[in-house]
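[Automated response] Your request has been received and processed.

Submitted sequence:
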Amino acid sequence: MVLKIVQAGEPVLRQPARDLTVEEIRGPDIQRLIALMRDTMRDAPGVGLAAPQVGVGVRLVVVEDRAEYQAGLSPAELSTRERTPVGFHVLANPRLFVEDASPVEFHEGCLSVAGFAALVPRARGVRVEALNELGEPVTVWARGWYARILQHELDHLDGTLYVDRMESRSLTTQENHRRHWAGRTTAEVRAALKLSERPPSTR
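Generated structure:
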């Protein structure tokens, strides 16, 4: 069973989500939600999903970046994005800390803004302190694409979408992204779109 992924315009996507208690995390309702969010993310497919995206206003995300999702990228593209597989994991009540504020910019999409993508600057390295699916404290350090995924998903918990952070002139349909921009460097995209040389600062 998969859940409906709500789209931009749904109020839940613009409201801060509430923290969960340890008892709630360990309870049957949230455990079922975690399983459904995992299945929904994989069905989409996506590399992350936040509870507000399925209409539930709690601070809960699931993340997984499978190797097969990266199969279409060249070794050079994977290296530039600092992208490697990330196993499935759960983060409840996450708090994000920027470890490396260097802005890195790539096209980014969202399951709740279906069919579009845009250049979005993100911090290169972050640390996240959270609770796992057992309600136990965990700390995650991430760089590159993994850090981007975490920043994107945790933004959802604060009512923020990537369109709030994007380079607006770069907004494109996913189809046109594949036709015109896939495989091109961010610098090439910025030059073609007559954007400034440096991406805006992050966060």
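Summary generated for your ticket: The first helix runs from residue 22 to 26. The domain at 11-104+120-166 is CATH 3.90.45.10 (Peptide Deformylase).
If you did not submit this request, please reply to this message.
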